[in-house]
Specification:
The complex is a heterotrimer of chains A (about 190), B (about 325) and C (about 725). By secondary structure, chain A is α+β, with helices and mostly antiparallel strands. Helices cover about 30% and strands about 15% of the residues of chain A. Chain A folds into 2 domains: about 90 residues, Beta-grasp domain (Ubiquitin-like (UB roll), Roll); about 80 residues, DNA polymerase, domain 1 (Orthogonal Bundle). In chain A, helix 3 crosses helix 6. Among the domains of chain B are: about 45 residues, Uridine Diphospho-n-acetylenolpyruvylglucosamine Reductase, domain 2 (2-Layer Sandwich), CATH 3.30.43; about 90 residues, Enolase-like, domain 1 (2-Layer Sandwich), CATH 3.30.390.50. In chain B, about 25% of the residues lie in helices and about 15% in strands. Chain B has 10 helices and 11 strands. In chain B, helix 5 runs antiparallel to helix 8 and helix 9 packs across helix 10. The longest helix of chain B is centred in the C-terminal third of the chain and has 17 residues. In chain C, helix 12 packs parallel to helix 13 and helix 16 crosses helix 17. Chain C folds into 3 domains: about 170 residues, Aldehyde Oxidoreductase, domain 4 (2-Layer Sandwich); about 190 residues, Aldehyde Oxidoreductase, domain 4 (2-Layer Sandwich); about 220 residues, Aldehyde oxidase/xanthine dehydrogenase, molybdopterin binding domain (Aldehyde Oxidoreductase, domain 4). Chain C is globular and about 75 Å long. A 7-stranded mixed β-sheet of chain C has the order 4-6-2-13-10-11-12, sandwiched between helices. In chain C, strands 1-25-19-20-21 form a 5-stranded mixed β-sheet, covered by helices on one side. The chains are: A alpha+beta (about 190), B alpha+beta (about 325), C alpha+beta (about 725). Chains in contact: A-B, A-C, B-C. Chains A and C meet through helix 1, helix 2, helix 3, helix 4 and helix 5 of A and helix 1, helix 3, strand 7 and helix 16 of C.
């Protein structure tokens, strides 16, 4: 152990007074929500801790796993890397807004049919991401595996795999997730 | 994460004034800043949310180029038809980076200002001259496989993690800013990043409160525009080495590298060697390189990746 | 129920539910985000507070003092508990590092304090205000150094010596002597370790994420010095474990102690950057393999020695486990050595032992086949054995050769160039590789309670866990089969220490053992029902919702009209484990492409052929296998905890630094299960399969990389930097 170990400057600082809070109003799964929250609350923690929508998962809290993926104003984002106060007026869709156990969205049903999960923890993020992926391909947003940047983009297995790569599944259900998404993509065509 | 106050100004002037406050920091996409705030590597007392400033358009310039607003999201920049047609290198680099979710949030300006991904920068228990100036560099004798081989210093061997910036460097982008006093300026990307020297905590030439408002691309270069990002896993990983190449029909071109230096790495003189091949170009690109035992592979890797891109561009 | 003789025909053999490809019964909850994991338990307690842990900033030494004043004064803070406030506690029998208590720091990021506050944000912020005074001590963090120091020392267990290895090896006309290295690996399950702890008087309930409920109760009660009946542990959903949640970890102990201190329920999750060093990992190994063979390819000498490190009193990585069983050879030297390292605690990760042992063994076997000029598959089959080498114990079943041959046929083994670096497609070198798969079949006592409800529904309660394995579903299928009811009539309740003790999830014993326990409980329930109806339990048939005997038939609804009927039993395995070696076998096939310029390796297709007894549900079993294959790709190509040997910690301690496979890494995966049952194993005639799918995958990738490039990397993971110096110029 190096002798200078104890002398490393440590970044500290005292909090003075109550942490600043802000009022925020947004729409979550079609319902309005407003409240006053600590500025530090992420969109993910707003959903999970303040509102009780625990479908969006916290896997890493640092944008490294994708389990927290939700759809904001039509685009998928990592809810863990977003302050809730920055979502004033936004429309958020979480897995709870995609479908319910007794009224599954076709993509959710396809995940069940193809066993596109195991432990289930990354699953809501995978599904939210997959919904957006299909729209991104349809909208012609290129990906790393898109060879011709100016031609229409086909919904190939390679495209889906690349675009879903921001959603880690440690159980390794990738092949089944691909099957579920592909089935829905084909149904949509 | 330290507590912070928050505001979202509606005009550039308000933003510049707010950004000049002690402890203030601008936030746009937040994908790197929030990550670092959670670890108290960044500890702003005041966040200035610049998302209300517009700055989200891509416009054609009189010079035949493009002006990209600072807040254009990576996804939108990559997908813009003009970028795909005329600056394919930029699209290729952008979509090689991060994940779809992150690219939806990350902005052009924020991407330029990403901090390093060095494991010791990220661990506040460890010495790191970039995070805690004067504390030392644990990476020099530690884990350095991912880290820089050229343009580094005794104080810091961190790399700049951006893919987008590699393309912008090859494309001679200029970075437009507004200083706290309201004065606008334009900085060639080649002059934007600072070598670490003894002060690795200072990464760019931006002044306190200076806000990036946009990035300008000159008229299209044409030619084949290719990008290869070498990494252990196939996606959602930082580069071991990335190579951006523009090769025009007359044989001239541009090379910029990622994953090797504290900034997107370009040595203009190396481009004169393109006709001689990758080895000659890399000799100039890596002049003065000081790799560690763990990352010396980046030199042959870059050379071979460049050779492959040259072959592809010529085929 | 004692299982000590091979299973005869039983209701499971009807296979109307068991063995059928049923979708998971918990699927709709998982895909809709309504399955509640530990940190998400909201309605179970009131007045819950948030805990946030602090990990030690040094690898070894002592905590002299912790100044908590600033943290305690911070907004929202309810209380601070430090490791100096509580003594070292008793540990479970399979753990070595302290979870929370005492002044010793045994490894980096060991939990040393927890701050409790009204909000997560306040707890996290205040934790950063703790000022810790350490007395660091030097430590040893370098396995290579340890391996050099202890070379030649006795093995941990009695030397598995057969014949005279040294003489036979020296005399062998064909020899191989190679050393392989496997790195430290992280479970990296998606759900962080998390606990909500609540006290009611002297009784503690923890909602946590744990694979082994009864072990958890035992270890937590010991840690807190409580009677076991005062501790309740609940884990209905577990977001992945892979061995990392076999035991209670610091989140459980710290949340429980903090909750007691502040007098409120506390929930706490380990922040991702803390997990790699705070919890356990699969230890790195240095493995020396020495083979001697005749010219025609028969092993005459088989040596496999492995060295790993661990904290004092820790165990070795049992990387030679399979080497006692996999190939015949008259002279054998197999064993493990253990050195002391001051890195975090090494412990079980999916297929402990075999996972890393097979990485080295099955790559070395390919090297030997090449030396002998033999096809890798034929060489393996040539050295196959139907009895345990050196003993005469038969395997209950052993279809290794069938797996290899069937896989070769399906995968197109014939297309493989027998010489390396011969196949090129565009910028890629293409190669095909094979490896045997082997994993012991473990059996664990397992209990359940079966209830015929009024209305005719069947309910199963057991403390078995579902960590993604499909326990809910296969248990429901077992109960439906046994009771002759549709799957929809079965309710399964898992993961609560109030239910009968089960096998739990680990060592690929969970599926077979827990369903066998449910089988036993259902046999008991059938007996109770038959008795109530006056039928002979031995001959009564339960099918289509009825109990039928003689000319009588009574519906289960009617049978339960006089009130619910409950039975509880467990399965205990005895005797057959000594008479027969029970193992699972398979073959892994992999095709890779290696970029001729950059040496980047990408897997192009994969096949696993598995011989593992009855497959209880081909959907969930296949998922287990493809998931394991995916983890095997990670082992082969990217996963490595980067040891900082100066500062003594895993530097890449998050999911950006420790890379696990993503979607883009995983190609088409095929799985074939041999159609078989193994009556020696259990009344279910099933065996484990979830770890078999991992054992050998990385070697198959390594062998494919060799076939593609002619480069043999003996230091996992196989990354481009290890290939580049040997690649032909581009």
């Amino acid at each position: 152990m190096p002798s200078d170990f104890e002398t490393i400057p440590r970044e500290t600082g005292a909090a003075d007074g109550a942490p600043p809070r802000s009022e925020v109003s947004l729409t979550i799964n079609g319902r309005d929500w407003s409240g006053v929250i600590d500025n530090r609350v992420t969109l993910l923690d707003l959903l999970r801790e303040e509102i009780g929508l625990t479908g969006s998962k916290k896997g890493c809290d640092h944008g490294q796993c994708g389990a927290c993926t939700v759809i904001v104003n039509g685009r998928r984002v990592n809810a863990c890397l977003s302050f809730a106060v920055m979502h004033q007026g936004d429309a958020v869709t979480t897995i709870e807004g995609v479908g319910r156990p007794d009224a599954l969205d076709p993509l959710q049903a396809a995940f069940v049919a193809h066993d596109g999960y195991q432990c289930g923890y990354c699953t809501p993020g995978q599904i939210c991401s997959a919904k957006a992926v299909l729209e991104e391909i349809a909208a012609g947003v290129p990906s790393h595996v898109t060879r011709d940047l100016e031609a229409p983009i086909a919904t190939t297995a390679e495209e889906i795999r690349e675009r879903m790569s921001g959603n880690i599944c440690r159980c390794g259900a990738y092949a089944n997730i691909l099957a579920a998404i592909s089935e829905v993509a084909e149904g949509a065509r | 994460m330290r507590a912070f106050s928050y505001e979202k100004p509606g005009t550039l002037a308000e933003a510049a004034a707010a950004g000049a406050r002690e402890g203030a920091k601008y936030i746009a996409g937040g994908t790197n800043l929030i990550d670092l705030m959670k670890l108290e590597i960044e500890t702003p007392a005041h966040l200035v949310d610049v998302n209300g400033l517009g700055l989200d358009r891509i416009e054609e310039t009189a010079a035949g180029g493009l002006r990209i607003g600072a807040l254009v999201r990576n996804t939108d920049l990559a997908a813009d038809p003009r970028v795909r047609r005329d600056y394919a290198l930029l699209t290729r680099a952008l979509v090689a980076g991060a994940s779809g979710q992150l690219r939806n949030k990350a902005t052009t300006a924020g991407n330029l200002l990403q901090r390093t991904r060095c494991a010791y920068f990220y661990d506040t228990n460890m010495p790191c001259n970039k995070r805690a100036p004067g504390s030392g560099c644990a990476a020099l004798e530690g884990i350095s496989r991912q880290l820089g081989v050229v343009g580094t210093s005794e104080a810091c061997i961190a790399t700049h993690p951006s893919d987008m910036a590699v393309a912008l460097r090859a494309l001679d982008a200029e970075i437009e800013t507004m200083r706290a006093d309201g004065v606008a300026r334009s900085i060639p990307i080649g002059e934007f990043y600072r070598t670490p020297g003894e002060t690795p905590e200072i990464e760019t030439v931006l002044g306190a409160g200076e806000l990036i408002t946009g990035v300008t691309l000159p008229a299209p270069l044409g030619g084949a525009q290719l990008y290869h990002k070498a990494r252990d896993r196939a996606s959602y990983a930082f580069a071991l080495v990335s190579v951006g190449l523009v090769l025009r029909e007359d044989g001239t071109g541009r090379i910029a590298l990622g994953g090797v230096a504290p900034m997107p790495w370009r040595v203009e003189a190396a481009e004169a060697e393109l006709g001689e091949g990758a080895a000659a170009a890399c000799e100039m690109l890596f002049a003065g390189a000081r790799p560690t035992e763990q990352n010396a592979f980046k030199l042959p890797l870059a050379e071979r990746a460049l050779a492959a891109l040259l072959a592809e561009a010529r085929s | 129920m004692l299982f000590d003789t091979p299973a005869k025909e039983n209701p499971i053999d009807r296979a109307r539910e068991v063995g059928q490809p049923r979708p998971r019964i918990d699927g709709p909850l998982k895909v809709s985000g309504t399955a509640r994991y530990a940190y998400e338990q909201r309605d179970v307690v009131e007045n819950m507070a948030y805990g946030y842990p602090l990990g030690a900033a040094i690898a070894k030494g002592r905590v002299r003092a912790i100044d908590t004043a600033a943290a305690e004064a911070a907004p929202g803070v309810i209380g601070v508990l430090t490791t100096l406030d509580v003594p070292r506690h008793a540990l479970g029998p399979m753990n070595t590092a302290m979870l929370f208590g005492g002044d010793r720091v045994e490894h980096y990021h060991q939990a040393i304090a927890v701050v409790v506050a009204e909000s997560f944000e306040e707890a996290r912020a205040a934790t950063a205000l703790l000022d810790v005074d350490y007395a660091p001590e030097p430590g040893c963090f370098d396995l290579e150094r340890v391996a050099r120091e202890i070379v030649g020392q006795p093995f941990c267990e009695d030397d598995a010596l057969v014949g005279d290895f040294d003489d036979a090896f020296l005399a062998a006309p064909v020899q191989l002597d190679v050393t392989y290295r496997t790195p430290d690996q992280s479970h990296s399950m998606m759900e962080p370790h998390a606990t909500l702890a609540a006290w009611e008087g002297d009784e503690l309930t923890v909602w946590t994420s744990n694979q082994m409920i009864a072990w958890g109760v035992r270890d937590l009660a010991a840690a807190l010095d409580l009677p076991r009946d005062k501790v309740r542990l609940v884990s209905p959903f577990i977001g992945g474990g892979f061995g990392g949640k076999l035991f209670v970890r610091s989140d459980v102990v710290a949340a429980s102690l903090a909750a007691r201190k502040v007098g409120r329920p506390v929930k706490l999750a380990l922040p991702r950057p803390l997990i790699a060093n705070n919890t356990t990992h699969r230890p790195a190994t240095v493995q020396r393999l020495r083979f001697g063979a005749t010219e025609d390819g028969k092993f005459t000498a088989f040596g496999h020695e492995s060295t790993s490190g661990n904290l004092p009193d820790g165990g070795p990585e049992t990387a030679t486990q399979q080497s006692q069983f996999l190939y015949a050879a008259p002279n054998r030297l197999v064993g493990e050595r253990l050195g002391v390292l001051d890195l975090p605690e090494g412990n079980a990760m999916r297929a402990p032992g075999e996972a890393s042992g097979m990485m080295a063994l099955e790559a070395a076997v390919d090297e030997m086949a090449e030396k002998l000029g033999l096809d890798p598959i034929e060489f393996r089959i040539l050295n196959d054995t139907q009895v345990v080498p050196g003993k005469d114990t038969p395997f209950s079943q052993r279809h290794l050769a069938d797996c290899l041959r069937l896989g070769a046929d399906r995968f197109g083994w014939g297309e493989r160039a027998s010489l390396p670096a011969r196949r090129r497609e565009g910028r890629s070198w293409i190669g095909i590789g094979v490896a045997a798969a082997y994993r012991n079949n473990l059996l664990m006592k397992s209990g359940a309670r079966a209830r015929l409800q009024e209305g005719g529904g069947v309910e199963i309660e057991t403390d078995m866990t579902d960590i993604g394995t499909g326990s809910y579903t296969i248990i429901a299928q077992t109960a439906a089969e046994m009771m002759g009811v549709p799957l929809a009539r079965v309710t399964v309740r898992l993961g609560d220490s109030r239910y009968p003790v089960s096998a739990g999830s680990g060592g690929q014993f969970g599926g077979n053992s827990s369903t066998s326990g449910v089988y036993a409980a259902c046999v008991a329930l059938r007996t109770r029902i038959a008795e109530r109806l006056g039928a002979d339990p031995e001959t009564a048939v339960f099918e289509e919702g009825e109990v039928r005997w003689g000319n009588s038939a009574v519906s289960l609804v009617e049978a339960a009209s006089g009130g619910e009927i409950v039975a509880e039993d467990s399965i205990t395995f005895k005797g057959l484990g000594e008479k027969y070696r029970q193992s699972t076998f398979g073959a892994h096939f992999v095709e890779v492409a290696v970029d001729a310029a950059t040496a980047e390796i990408r897997v192009r297709r994969m096949l696993a052929v598995c011989s593992a007894g009855r497959i209880l549900n081909p959907v969930t079993a296949r998922s287990q296998v493809i998931g394991a294959m995916t983890m095997g790709v990670g082992s082969a190509l990217m996963e490595e905890l980067a040891v900082d040997k100066t500062r003594g910690f895993f530097a890449n301690h998050d999911l950006a630094g420790y890379e696990v496979p993503v979607h883009a890494d995983i190609p088409r995966q095929d799985v074939i299960f041999l159609d078989e049952t193994d009556p020696i194993s259990s009344p279910m005639k099933a065996k484990g399969v979830g770890e078999l799918g991992l054992c050998g995958v990385a070697a198959a990738v390594a062998n494919a990389v060799y076939n593609a490039t002619g480069i043999r990397v003996r230091d996992f993971p196989i990354t481009l930097d290890k290939l580049l110096p040997h690649m032909p110029p581009f």
